[in-house]
Specification:
Shape of chain A: globular
Largest sheet of chain A: 8 strands, mixed
Distance between the termini of chain A: 35 Å
Number of strands of chain A: 12
Structural class of chain A: alpha/beta
CATH topology of chain B: MetI-like fold
CATH class of chain B: Mainly Alpha
Order of helices and strands of chain B: HHHHHHHHHHHH
Oligomer: heterodimer
Radius of gyration of chain B: 25 Å
Number of helices of chain B: 12
Shape of chain B: elongated
CATH superfamily of one domain in chain A: P-loop containing nucleotide triphosphate hydrolases
Helix content of chain A: 25-40%
Strand content of chain B: under 5%
Helix content of chain B: over 70%
Number of helices of chain A: 12
CATH topology of one domain in chain A: Rossmann fold
């Protein structure tokens, strides 16, 4: 399996030099995606999930720097590529979908031209060919009357339609991997469902892998095969969606699941996670979750647990992960 | 009781307006902007009069008639009289306007292009390019516009080409500043990040994505800049540094006529009024455009 990895992020660290000292929004993240796989990256706001996504394509803000680690895509380390070589991968082989379809579309450019731009730049298509392709893509993502809609501007579209345009743009050069940065957060629930189905279906048809950043757990369950949970710039747990959601092996995942409503158990009371996410300038000693953890012991305050691989392909960064299993047993 | 209430036909269900009407409404608003409209009409009249000069006068602006110098208004078929060399003032006013409008237009386009290019590079890339360009701008801005233009034209030699070079070399700084400021803000927008994630080159992002979003500010400024340029051109010609005689132009007409101000006031005053009206028309367009884009922009 490990030989056929499409994207492998190893021990990625990013730091931002700020006024109040150095911030480390990503502090040793390791992730892998196999071809055709959909991986979810979940966590609270500020846990570094969007930042991880942006650092894969080298889209970090100017004051942020990758200090160590690598992002290996098809044998090349993207963090070391020159701007022009990276541009041959961006949009062509790895595409990205953004959270706000309104602000991520150019307000003064016709949507058809925005979709057609990628094929013209990357696939060397003529104007007529790229227009043809854009119409075809618009049809595939379910935009009615592409001949008429081609000339529309983004403000004439609804939120869901705009996100369909974004998906069409992402698919326009048949990428091998699509990175999604909370693509449905700005949409209402029914539209969200449509968009997720569409995305999952199109990726399945073309064998495109998907990396899905969200704070919405049901969304991960709907779209992804695997999930990685992020907390304070680190991955704390990794595994398949069904395993992680039914048997979390990190107290943070457990708390996250218990703080979200579950349609199968209506009436179950929601348990909020006490405290707030730690400061990234001065993270807590030992395990970063220990000040908020219900199972924290003295050793959690001292030793900083790495992400340990367990049998069955799962991984956790908790010293006392058995307690989670005990807790689940006690709950049910 | 009324006929309306007795009408059995149900009122047609309100049809939601299609998205197109909003766009059309915005496009339709420009002619309801009185400032803009006045300016446009005024400018259209001026342009028509200057470029349709052959329809409005049968006199050649350069033909001298030394037997009839300094005629008054309406004398011997000359609507605005003649100058000291017997040339028809009305013809010279119209043909002179052609020259001044053309020179002003070119003298506003060139700095617009140069300033927009340099400003967008400085704004998008930042770093040393930004520092160098901004320092040059600071130096140019430190001098008064007219002083620098006159000095440059004086060095380069008189004539149209010198005017273009001088005004471009100095006028670009305003466009560069405006564009740089707008791009510095606009490049943080998510659509720029999206374009970067799509693997587009920096020049393509600037040209196709950023500039169409920010260029309106420069266009509005250009409308007030062209007024300044017309005045600069007329001033230069008045000082003998601009358009060279016998080519008619408002500046040379004003300066040539001032010797006869006590007897033939119209020789100086009428081209002066022409400058004022043209400036007014362009200013009105600039103001109207600014209002329109301010309220129209989200």
């Amino acid at each position: 399996m490990s030989g056929s990895l499409q994207l492998e992020v190893s021990d990625l660290r990013v730091q931002i030099a700020g006024h109040q000292g150095v911030v480390r929004p990503i502090d040793g993240v390791s992730l892998e995606i196999a071809p055709g796989e959909a991986v979810g990256l979940v966590g609270e706001s500020g846990s570094g999930k969007s930042m991880t996504l942006k650092s894969i394509l080298g889209l970090l803000p100017p004051d942020a720097k990758v200090t160590s680690g690598s992002v290996v895509f098809d044998g090349t380390d993207l963090t070391r590529l020159s701007h022009s070589r990276l541009n041959k991968i961006r949009g062509r082989r790895i595409a990205m979908i953004f959270q706000e379809p309104m602000s991520a579309l150019n307000p003064v450019m016709r949507v058809g031209n925005q979709i057609a731009e990628g094929p013209r730049v990357h696939l060397g298509m003529s104007r007529a060919q790229s227009v043809e392709r854009a119409m075809d893509l618009m049809r595939r993502v379910g935009i009615p009357e592409p001949e008429r809609r081609f000339r529309a501007f983004p403000h004439e579209f609804s939120g869901g339609m705009r996100q369909r345009v974004m998906i069409a743009m992402a698919l326009s050069c048949d990428p091998e991997l699509i990175l999604c940065d909370e693509p449905t957060t700005a949409l209402d629930v029914t539209i969200q469902d449509q968009i997720l189905r569409l995305l999952a279906q199109l990726c399945h048809e073309s064998g495109t892998s998907l990396m899905f950043v969200t704070h919405d757990l049901p969304v991960v369950a709907q779209v992804c095969h695997k999930v990685a949970v992020m907390y304070a710039g680190r991955i704390v747990e990794r595994g398949t969606v069904s395993e992680v959601f039914s048997q979390p092996l990190h107290p943070y995942t457990l708390d996250l699941l218990r703080s979200a409503p579950d349609i199968d158990h209506p009436g179950q009371s929601l348990v909020p996670i006490p405290g707030s996410p730690p400061s990234l300038t001065n993270p807590p000693s030992g395990c970063r979750f220990h000040p908020r953890c219900q199972f924290a012991e003295d050793d959690c305050k001292v030793s900083d647990p790495p992400l340990r691989l367990l049998e069955g392909g799962r991984a956790t960064a908790c010293l006392h992960y058995e307690r989670c299993l005990d807790q689940i047993g006690a709950d049910s | 009781m009324s006929a309306v209430s007795a009408d059995p036909a149900p009122a047609p269900a309100p049809v939601p307006p299609p998205a197109v009407t909003r766009v059309r409404a915005r496009r339709a608003r420009w002619y309801r902007q009185p400032t803009l409209m006045t300016g446009l009409v005024l400018l259209a009249v001026i342009v028509f009069m200057c470029y349709g000069a052959s329809l409005l006068t049968s006199f050649n602006p350069d033909t001298q008639n030394l037997e009839q110098p300094l005629l008054g208004l309406g004398q011997a078929g000359h609507l605005l009289g003649t100058d000291q060399e017997g040339r028809d003032t009305w013809a010279r006013l119209l043909y002179g306007g052609q020259v001044d409008l053309r020179v002003a237009f070119i003298a506003v386009i060139l700095p617009f292009i140069l300033g927009t290019i340099l400003g967008s590079l400085a704004g998008y890339f930042g770093g040393w390019a930004d520092t160098v360009i901004m320092r040059i701008i600071d130096i140019v801005v430190a001098f008064p516009f007219f002083v620098l233009v006159i000095a440059l034209v004086f060095v380069l030699g008189t004539g149209e080409k010198s005017i273009y070079i001088a005004i471009t070399a100095i006028g670009w700084v305003s466009y560069a500043r405006i564009t740089r400021g707008e791009i510095t803000v606009a490049k943080r927008q998510e659509y720029v990040l999206a374009a970067q994630s799509g693997g587009l080159s920096s020049l393509r992002i600037i040209g196709r994505h950023l500039l169409p979003n920010v260029v309106t500010q420069s266009i509005v400024y250009a409308m007030s800049d062209i007024v300044q340029d017309i005045i600069a051109i007329v001033t230069l010609s008045y000082l003998g540094l601009g358009i060279q005689p016998p080519t008619p132009d408002w500046g040379t007409m004003i300066s040539a006529g001032q010797n006869f101000l006590t007897t033939q006031w119209q020789l100086t005053t009428i081209p002066g009024i022409a400058v004022v009206i043209t400036g007014l028309a362009l200013s009105l367009i600039g103001d109207g455009l600014a209002d329109l884009l301010r309220t129209g922009g989200s």
